[in-house]
């Protein structure tokens, strides 16, 4: 299907979704959205003020009680209709994501499938929120537990997966009976705006989901987080911003889910199937142009296979086609903004200045757009900044190791603990190494393991809470225990 870009952009609401309508900002302010492949402005949206943010919270709180009482089957049906509508509009969503974020269209289509699965999964989970029944050990009480919606939520999403990061929060919140205010990333709000309209089209009652895009994140989030009616904040983004939000959340003792940054090790043992390892490396490194919290950030490769791994990985990267993600055949798009491209370039330049060797790539692209060449570095010193910071770009630094203990020590030597990858054919090593890895996610012989049915989340400074799986809906519920005097109690 060929999408007409101007017709598509004309369909995306440009206002703030407050209650039942898309409205202008109270001060008339706007901000621009840019295409990172060309540097051109593609849309101008209303920019929410603090007043607008509170109006969105008002609209949400006004329907919380009624929404929580709606039968779970009806909430489930709305999610299911949302899933079907997103599937019908898949090509539109994919095109929007490529336009505002830069990922190649084929990857954007993949994100629509992945992101939409959260609507389907939580439409199924909505009707399976079970409590418990039992008697106390002393026999004096009957115990009932009920899972209640946690209450009004603030959902803050990043720019790297514009659809999936929204559906991963919105779908379980709907399933659990919570109302919400969604604040999308400034760089990529269009997908969320269109997604919210799609949920209204699917029958979501006005006020349940409100959307406040804007140029100033803190002007939007601060007043909402300072309001006594808010009960939860779910944030996906960088660790420093997550830390600030946690401090703010403490003042009101808010429930929090924090999906923060990562520094994933990708370990290739001497007994690995190298074909699988190269395939896995392509997925773990190149998915989303390396702009993923799960992106392999450090390649730890046994010294006996490091040369072959580096050579074959570099050869695969040289086959990639850099360009505008909307163009046929392009496999690597631009980075999301100029600042992002410059930060990748400075990490590579610093590693090279400290003695690393460039096997392939190592340069920014020329012309309009924020391109960086897929790059492999070897001989990287273990204290290089590139191994200790999120690269968020298509750059693979390789470090060698000699023993399993050394690999584990290097892998865990980070304050982050989100994704990790292990390539080995030895079953006992799989369990041993998984036990030793201080990470919330372990991919074994696979470079991409995210799935709506699986609990996604980190440990250490990568955050707390889980999205997806059975665990994903619990983040939006609180347990109420009801103790009833036992009829046989003395
Ligand atoms: P970011 O700068 O932390 O921004 C994330 C979101 O927070 C955006 O909506 C942003 O709004 C907002 N924000 C920024 N400053 C804020 C403040 N002071 N108060 C309230 N909200 C604020 O992160 P990003 O650059 O968009 O995303 C990349 C980061 O996200 C990486 O660290 C990546 O690892 C992480 N990430 C984690 C996961 C996970 O599941 N663990 C998934 C994806 C991404 P503006 O856009 O308006 O600045």
From TrEMBL:
Active-site positions on this chain: 259
Any one biological process term the GO annotation gives: gamma-aminobutyric acid catabolic process
GO molecular function: succinate-semialdehyde dehydrogenase (NAD+) activity
SUPFAM superfamilies: ALDH-like (SSF53720)
Cross-referenced InterPro entries: Ald_DH/histidinol_DH, Ald_DH_C, Ald_DH_CS_GLU, Ald_DH_N, Aldehyde_DH_dom, Aldehyde_DH_Superfamily
Transmembrane segments: none
Enzyme Commission numbers on file: 1.2.1.16
Tree of life domain: Bacteria
Domain named Aldehyde dehydrogenase: residues: 22-481
UniProt keyword list: Oxidoreductase
PANTHER family attached to this UniProt entry: SUCCINATE-SEMIALDEHYDE DEHYDROGENASE, MITOCHONDRIAL
Family designation: Belongs to the aldehyde dehydrogenase family.
Protein name, as recorded: NAD-dependent aldehyde dehydrogenases
Organism: Corynebacterium glutamicum (strain ATCC 13032 / DSM 20300 / JCM 1318 / BCRC 11384 / CCUG 27702 / LMG 3730 / NBRC 12168 / NCIMB 10025 / NRRL B-2784 / 534)
């Amino acid at each position: 299907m060929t999408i007409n870009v101007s017709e598509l952009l004309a369909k995306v609401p440009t206002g703030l979704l407050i209650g039942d309508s898309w409205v202008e900002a109270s001060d008339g302010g706007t901000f621009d959205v840019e295409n990172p492949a060309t540097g051109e402005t593609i849309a101008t949206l209303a920019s929410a003020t603090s007043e607008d943010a509170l109006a969105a919270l008002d609209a949400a709180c006004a329907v919380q009680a009624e929404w929580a009482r709606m039968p779970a089957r009806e909430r489930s049906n709305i999610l299911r209709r949302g899933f079907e509508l997103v599937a019908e509009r898949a090509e539109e969503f994919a095109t929007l994501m490529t336009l505002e974020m830069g990922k190649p269209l084929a990857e954007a289509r993949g994100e629509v499938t992945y992101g939409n699965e959260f609507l389907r999964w939580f439409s199924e989970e909505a009707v399976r929120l079970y409590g418990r029944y039992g008697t106390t050990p002393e026999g004096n009480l009957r115990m009932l537990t009920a899972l209640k919606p946690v209450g009004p939520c603030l959902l803050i999403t990043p720019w790297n997966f514009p659809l999936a990061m929204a559906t991963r929060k919105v779908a379980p919140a709907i399933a659990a009976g919570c109302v919400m205010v969604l604040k999308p990333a400034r760089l990529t709000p269009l997908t969320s705006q269109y997604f919210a309209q799609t949920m209204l089209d699917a029958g979501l009652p006005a006020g349940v989901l409100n959307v406040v895009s804007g140029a100033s994140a803190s002007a939007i989030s601060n007043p909402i987080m300072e309001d006594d009616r808010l009960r939860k904040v779910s944030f996906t983004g960088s660790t420093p911003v997550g830390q600030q939000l946690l401090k703010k959340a403490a003042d009101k003792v808010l429930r929090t889910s924090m999906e923060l940054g990562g520094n994933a090790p990708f370990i290739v043992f001497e007994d690995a199937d190298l074909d699988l390892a190269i395939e896995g490396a392509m997925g773990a490194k190149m998915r989303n142009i390396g702009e993923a919290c799960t992106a392999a950030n450090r390649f730890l490769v046994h010294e006996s296979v490091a040369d072959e791994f580096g050579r074959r990985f570099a050869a695969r990267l040289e086959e990639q086609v850099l360009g505008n993600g909307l163009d046929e055949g392009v496999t690597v798009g631009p980075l999301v903004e100029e600042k992002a491209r410059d930060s990748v370039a400075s990490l590579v330049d610093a590693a090279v200045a400290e003695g690393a060797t460039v096997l392939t790539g190592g340069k920014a692209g020329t012309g309009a757009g924020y391109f960086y060449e897929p790059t492999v570095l070897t001989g990287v010193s273990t204290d290089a900044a590139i191994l200790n910071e999120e690269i968020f770009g298509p750059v693979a630094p390789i470090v060698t190791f000699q023993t399993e203990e050394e690999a584990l020590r290097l892998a865990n030597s980070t304050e982050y603990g989100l994704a990790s990858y292990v390539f080995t054919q030895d079953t006992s090593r799989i369990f041993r190494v998984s036990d030793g890895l201080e990470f919330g996610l372990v991919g074994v012989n696979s470079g991409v393991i995210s799935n709506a049915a699986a609990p996604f989340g980190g440990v250490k400074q990568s955050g707390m809470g889980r999205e997806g799986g059975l665990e994903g809906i619990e983040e939006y519920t609180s347990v109420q225990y009801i103790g009833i005097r036992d009829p046989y109690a003395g």
